[in-house]
Predict the 3D structure of the following.
Amino acid sequence: MRVIVIGGVAGGMSAATRLRRLSENAEITVLERSGHVSYANCGLPYHVGGVIEKRSDLLLQTPQTLHDRFALDVRVHHEVLSIDRARHVVTVRNLDTGADLELPYDHLLLSTGARAIRPPIPGIERALSLRDVEDTDALVAAAATARDAVVVGGGFIGVEVAENLVHLGLNVAVVEATDQVMAPIDPEMATPVHDRMRAHGIDLRLGSAVAAIGPHDVTLTTGDTLSADLVVAAIGVRPETTLAEQAGLAIGERGGILVDDQLRTSDPAILAVGDAVEKTDAVDGTAALIPLANTANLQGRRAADVIAGQAARNRPVLGTAIVGVLGLQIASTGWSEKRLRAAGRDVRAIHTHPASHATYYPGADTIALKLLVDPHTDEIIGAQGVGESGVDKRIDVIATAMAGRLPASALADLELAYAPAFSSAKDPVNMLGHIAQNLRTGTSRSIQWHEVADAVAAGAVIVDVREASERSGGRSIEGSVHIPVNELRDRLGEIPDGPVIVHCAVGVRGHTAARILTQHGRDVRNLDGGYRTWNAGIRAHVTPA
C-alpha cells in the first residue's frame, strides 16, 4: 500500500504516524513545501515575543527523527505540482534542485492547510503574515529593528501578535474593521478584553480598516495615519485548495475541500483533513470553516484509520477555542448570541461573574461567563468566558457537556473536582445549571442588558438593590430606584406600579430581590449578569441584531 501525504504539521503528521502504527508494511511518503514538517505553529507568536526563547523548541520533529522512529519518507522543500487522478500519480518538484519527478499512490491524503488572507490594499506586500516557521523568522528579524507596529486584524492571531510585540517594547496599534476584537465572543464579553489591551498601551482602532500601507506608515479609511516600521496582516485565513481544484475535486459552499464523514473527497482514493476542508457545524449541521489544531490532529488520525480499513467517522465541530491576551483568558465554544440572533434563532442568555475558586483562598479572580441556551429545548448552544484564571476548564466542561448533549439544567448535577484552591463547592458551571433550571421552570425571569432601554421606555421601573457605596461615582443606571436588598421587604411601597427590573452587581442579590417581589405579586425580571454585564454591554456600543 503506497500512501502519499501532502503537507505536514498537525493533520498530515498525525495521519502519517498513526498509519505507521497501524501498518508496518505501508509505504508512507510525506511531501512538504516548506522546510519544516513538524512544528508548534500555535507557539509561533510567543517566539516572536521572546516568551518561547529558543526557536528549536518549536521544531517538534525532523525528517530524520521521523524516519528513525516511524520509517517515514519525509521530504521537505518538495512541492506537489499536480495530481493525476486517473493514473494515481502526483508530480513533485524538488525546490532545492528544481528537478521534477512522479510518485505513484494507492491512497492520497491532502493536508494543505490554509493560506493567509491578503486583501488588495495598496502596499500590502510590505505586511508580514504568520503561518509557518519561515514567516516567524521574518517577523522576528523585522521586530528587532522596529519601534512602531500596526497589526491588521483583531482575531486570535492578531491579538496574540499584538501582545507579543508589546512584550518586545514596541508601540502597537491594532486595526479591526468590526466593532470588537475576538469575533467568536459577544460585545459585552469583549469589553474587558478591549480594556486590558488599552491598559497595556495598545492603540485599538475598532471600526476602522486599512486604506493603504506606505513605506513608514498605515493610512486608515477614517483618514488617520499610524506610524508603522512593521505591519503584520492577521486578517484571517482561507483553505488552501489550489491542488484540489486543479485535480477536479469537489469544493464546498464555504470554499473548503468537500469531504464525507470518512474524510474522503469526491475521489474515494483521496482523503483530506485539517484547515483545507469544510467541517460540519455541531450546532446546526451546516458547513463550517474552523481552522483549529485539535480538529486537524483528530482528522489526521481518523483519516489514517480509514486508510487502514478501520471503522472511523469524522465528528462535527463546536469551534472550542481559547486565547491568552495580556493576562486574560478568552474562550468560547459553540455559537455567540449575535450569531444566533442573526440566524433568527431564539436564545436565552445567562451571564455570571463567579470567582475562579473559593474567595477565602488567596488569589481568586473574577470570571465573566456566558451560557447560551435554546429556551424551548434547554439545549446548550454556546458559551463564552473571560478572566485571568479558571476560564479554560469551565469552557472545556461546557464543551464536553455539549458533545454529550446534556441540557443546560443538567450542568447543576455535574460532580466536579473541588478544593478551595481550585474551585467552589458550587462550581461556576454548576451555578450556570442552577440558573438555567430556575429560568426553565419559571422560578426566575431575566432581562438582558440590551433589552433594558426598551423595557423602561414601555413603563418598567429599575430597582437597584446594591449598597449605596456601590452606586458612587455615577455607577448606576439612570432613573433607577435605590433600595438595598436587605431593606426591600420593609420598603415595598416605595416601588412604583408597573413592571419591575431589579439588579445588583452581578445578579445574585438581584435573584433574591426578584423572588421577594414575585411573591408579593409584582411583575419582576432580574437584570442578567447585573450592573457589571449591563455596563460592559453599554460601553461596547453594540446591540445584537
User: Anything to note?
Assistant: DSSP finds 14 helices and 31 strands in the chain.
